[in-house]
Every structure is written in C-alpha cells, then in structure tokens.
Task: inverse folding
C-alpha cells in the first residue's frame, strides 16, 4: 500500500512525478518563514516499509519515469540510506529517468565528492534547495541555520558532480528594514553560485519573522525583485518567478532575457494596480 501522510509538499515541476515519502517532516524545522512542517515530528521511514511501497507502485505505475522523494530534506537521509533506495527504484521502474528531492546546504556538505558522484550515477538528478537570502544577517534573523557562503559552495560542489540545482530565493524576507541589503547580497551570492535553475517566490509570513519585521507592500515587493534581477550576472540559468505569490509572473533565461524581465516588472510597477499600502492579494501560504 502506498502511504502519504499529510502535509505533503512537492515543487510545481514535480506534478507528474511519482511521490514517495522517504521521511516525514523536516529535521531543522526552525525557519520562521516556513510553516510547512510545524507540528510534524521528523521521522525517517524504515527501509522495508519504503521498499514495500515501491513494489506496490511498480505494480500500479510500471511506466514511471520520474520520482520525487519527499519530505523536507530527503538528501539528509545520507549516502548509506539513499544508495539502496535509489537502487531499488531503478530495479522497480525500468524506464526511470530521474529522481529528484529537496536538499539543504548541510545535507550536501555531509556527502563526499565520491558519494555525490555515486548518487548522481544512480539517477538522482535535481536538488531543490533554498538559498532564501544572500544576507547572513537576514538568514540569522529568520533562524535559517545555514551560511550563505557555504550554500554557494555546496551548490557549486553539487553541480560539479553533475546535479541540476534548483535554487529558491524569497522576495521580502528581509522586510522593509533590510530590503536593499537582502536584494544586493542575494544577487551577489547567486552570481557566485550560478545555479542551473533559479526561482523567486514572495515570502508569505506564517507569523512575525523577526523582531521589528515589517512586511513589504505588493509595490515594494515588485521593486525588490526588480533590484535583484538588475544585479544578476548569470550565464545559462533558467529563471522562474511564476508562483502565485508573485504579483507579476515572470519566466526567462539569463543572460538573454534579463532586460525583458526588468521591462515587464517596470511595466507592472507603473500599471497602477499594485497595492502600495499592503501585501495585496496572495495565497494563504507558500
């Protein structure tokens, strides 16, 4: 029997993937901007249970080509747990092309170069990871528990090992007090990181992110994203800001689409429809 325990999250790009929960919750679970796994006790699922679900999934969906391993940081299972899991998936699904999962800086750092290469050979392909901000001050305020500089280093290690890294940043994470610092430092980190995929979402605070936090208005959020994109000097990066949290959906490639993206944001700012006094219309949560 295939078991899914709520809450269950996946990136939008994994809509067509078979989802297998390798763990429940998030081992860190202290970021003030994220309410995804609040109240969920972190638990790694037993191998025998997972293998049983894989066998059942193979019976029901034998043509599966993509698998997404949930939950919050499946790479944190480590090499010794992931290797047999990836091998079993490859055995069960002859047409399997790729396996993707969430990863954080610490879970990448815990793997040797040889282990990263070994997992990549077993069809582990895309690592979804959150930079969130390039400002260490902002990261510390929201209890991210990671270094921006180390995240840059680990993403570069992963991509050197053959992985595709899909990196997320959060517009508005620094609030009104640190908006410029957040945009400038995030652009600087991304220019060093040079991820294959980049997505920008607008933060939807589940509560007060830090003492003195004042959320950006919708108009200010678009301005911050404009500032960030204007500072990016990337090569061969696919960019998306088409999440419902963004008032101005964007998509393009760097460097060729940079000035088109800036023009679209500027047109949105001048359109007169953005809320200048509040956050505007947005989803309940990310």
Result:
């Amino acid at each position: 029997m295939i078991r899914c325990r709520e809450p269950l999250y996946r990136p939008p790009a994994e809509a067509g993937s078979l989802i297998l929960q390798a763990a429940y919750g998030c081992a860190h679970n202290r970021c003030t901007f994220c309410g995804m796994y609040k109240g969920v006790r972190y638990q790694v699922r037993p191998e025998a249970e997972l293998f049983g679900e894989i066998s059942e999934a193979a019976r029901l969906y034998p043509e599966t080509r993509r698998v997404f391993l949930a939950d919050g940081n499946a790479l944190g299972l480590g090499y010794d747990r992931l290797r047999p899991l990836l091998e079993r998936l490859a055995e069960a699904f002859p047409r399997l092309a790729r396996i993707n999962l969430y990863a954080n800086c610490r879970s990448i750092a815990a793997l040797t170069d040889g282990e990263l290469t070994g997992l990549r050979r077993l069809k582990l392909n895309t690592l979804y990871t959150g930079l969130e901000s390039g400002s260490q001050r902002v990261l510390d305020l929201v209890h991210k528990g990671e270094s921006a500089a180390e995240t840059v280093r680990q993403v570069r290690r992963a991509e050197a090992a053959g992985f595709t890294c899909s990196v997320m940043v959060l517009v508005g994470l620094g609030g009104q007090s640190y908006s410029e610092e957040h945009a400038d430092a995030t652009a600087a980190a991304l220019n060093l990181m040079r991820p294959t995929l980049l997505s920008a979402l607008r933060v939807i605070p589940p509560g007060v992110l830090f003492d003195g936090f004042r959320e950006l208005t919708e108009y200010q959020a678009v301005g911050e994203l404009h500032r960030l994109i204007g500072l990016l000097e990337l090569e061969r990066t696919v960019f998306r800001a088409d999440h419902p949290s963004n008032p101005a959906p964007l998509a393009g490639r760097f460097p060729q689409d940079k000035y088109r993206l800036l023009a679209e944001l500027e047109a949105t700012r001048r359109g007169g429809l953005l809320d200048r006094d509040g956050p505007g219309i947005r989803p309940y949560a990310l």
